[in-house]
Amino acid sequence: MKTHLAKKLEERVEAVLEGAVVGLFAAPLHPHEVMVQLARALEDSAGGPASTPATRYSIRLNPADLNALLQAHPRLAETLGEELVQIAREHQLTLSRPPEVLLYPDPHLKSRQIVIAAEKEFHSPGTQNLTPVSLPSADLTPPAAAFLIIGGERTVPLNLPVLNIGRKLDNHLIVDDRRVSRRHAQLRLRHGRYVLYDLGSSGGTFVNDQRVEECVLQPGDVISLGGALLIYGEGTVCEVPKT
């Protein structure tokens, strides 16, 4: 039996080795990583289906990360704001005005670290409330009996509008495989179809052997998360081929 000290030493060595590998192969911060946390901030600020979410979001990033993001995506703040409107539609939330996203460099933050502050509007008794932005309903109906087969063993039904996939325990779908990043990919409903997004993973996201950043899934698609295999299906669960 391992002693407590030996176990702690093993965990420390494992963490150091993993950090070295991530440092060698990790891609720059991806906009989808920011969007995932921004979506969570929107949902958290609402506090429930009947509540009004925040409309102003301050995002602080490591200066090098922010500079790289803005060079690749000059309209990043506007794009994030547009995505917030779409997410509000999907969750049937009412915004009091179009959301505002502000990006700030913070030298105290480590690379890939993201800090988001959500601000709700406050009105004094003599202030007239703003007219809520009209948000038409979106198609949140998942494809018929959509599912994922993970590792040829586990079948997971898909019934949420947004699902985060990765090795970290706070994901909706946890894939316990060292090849999978902590936050690797995301599934989102778009017009009645599931769309797979890569979240800047170190091992990459592949659909039918083609590397993708964004892909509308079709029944029978084989997904690779850094080498960990998943199969997307709809309707009757298919037989997993034996290798």
Q: Element order, helices and strands?
A: HHEHHEEEEEEEEEEEEE
What is the chains' assembly state?
A: single chain
- Range of helix content: 25-40%
The biggest beta sheet reads: 6 strands, antiparallel
Number of strands: 14
Mean pLDDT: 77
Structural Rg: 20 Å
Distance between the termini: 35 Å
Q: Which of globular, elongated, flat, extended, rod-shaped describes the shape?
A: globular
How many helix segments?
4
| Low-confidence segments | 16-26, 122-139, 239-243
Estimate the strand proportion: 25-35%
Topology:
Blueprint: H1 4-25, H2 31-46, E1 56-61, H3 63-72, H4 76-90, E2 100-105, E3 114-119, E4 146-150, E5 154-157, E6 162-166, E7 173-174, E8 185-190, E9 193-198, E10 205-207, E11 210-211, E12 214-216, E13 222-225, E14 228-234
Parallel strand pairs: 1-2, 6-7
Antiparallel strand pairs: 1-3, 4-5, 4-14, 6-8, 8-9, 9-12, 10-11, 10-13, 13-14
Helix pairs in contact: 2-4
